[in-house]
Amino acid sequence: MTESNFSRQIMDFFEGLLQINGIENVLRAAMTVLVASVFGLLIYFTYKLTCRPFDYQREFGLVLIVVPIVVSILLTVIGTNIARAFSLAGALSIIRYRSTLVKPKEIVFIFFGMGTGFITGCFLYLPALVFVLITCVVIIVYTAFTLERGRNVAKTLTIAVPENINYDGLFDEILEKFTSSYALNSIRIISGGAVTELQYHIKIKDISMTKELLDEVRVLNQNFKIQLSQFATQ
User: Fold this and answer.
1) Does 141 lie in the same domain as 161?
2) Which pLDDT does position 31 carry in this prediction?
3) Residue 181 sits in which domain range?
4) Are residues 113 and 11 in the same domain?
5) Do the beta carbons of residue 161 and residue 167 sit within 8 Å?
6) What are the tens digits of pLDDT across the range 149-198?
């Protein structure tokens, strides 16, 4: 087979595709992919901007870029409203499955990306742009507000107390001083009964007073173990 014949076959193949699908449909699909890519990048940059450094996942960022593209092109190809409805139901089922594996914020961004893809796939480019911009602004403002607040930071405080100390109400005065609210979540006996471990759920009034809180607790529990961590339900 000569090079000219091979080139002609390639051209005939693409011309056949255009005849079957129509040049207008191909251009519309290309435009949809391009617009969805731009929206995906906006969603990704919003995620990166509002994510704490230790929570940021580069792989998840790639997911946020790709999801609007995939969803939009699928809806472009499917075409009919009934098929789109079934696609929406399937997508929501996937999100429900993923909800056990990711954090709530990541679920929000997945919904965001899929919603953007659905609107773009219906060729509603301007409504999709408005939706993306407003949602990004809301997420950024909310994140800035919550990160800049220095009060009512939810934490889990774990205190180890030796067996010779009566822990009943021992730390109440300190917790009332440094927290806006607190609750004793659990009491655990460890080290063969030599140590009692108390776990409190607390909301610190001012995060800058954390060291003072720990210093005063340390005096009462005779320098036994103290652990302050992110709030976690058990």
Assistant:
1) no
2) 92
3) 153-230
4) yes
5) yes
6) 545 567 889 999 998 888 888 899 999 998 888 999 889 988 888 899 99
Q: What pLDDT digit, counting tens, does each position of 63-95 carry?
A: 899 999 988 888 887 765 555 565 666 666 655
What three-state secondary structure class fits 88?
A: helix
| Residues 155, 147, 143, 67, Cα dihedral to 10° | -60
Question: How big is the CA angle at 45 (ends 42 and 47), to the nearest 5 degrees?
Answer: 110
E-assigned strand segments in the chain: 153-162, 179-190, 195-204, 226-230
Asked if residue 40 and residue 97 are part of one domain, the reply reads yes
How many distinct structural domains can be found in the chain? Answer: 2
Q: How far is CA 163 from CA 48, 191, 195, 228, 229, in A?
A: 48, 10, 5, 21, 24
pLDDT class for 47, splitting at 50, 70, 90? Answer: very high
d(C-alpha 186, C-alpha 121), whole Å: 51
189 and 110 in a common domain: no
- Residue 166, classed as helix, strand or coil, is coil
Res 13: pLDDT: 55
Return d(Cα 202, Cα 198) in angstroms, integer: 12
CATH number of the domain bearing residue 207 = 3.30.70.60
Query: Coil, strand or helix: which one is 80?
Result: coil
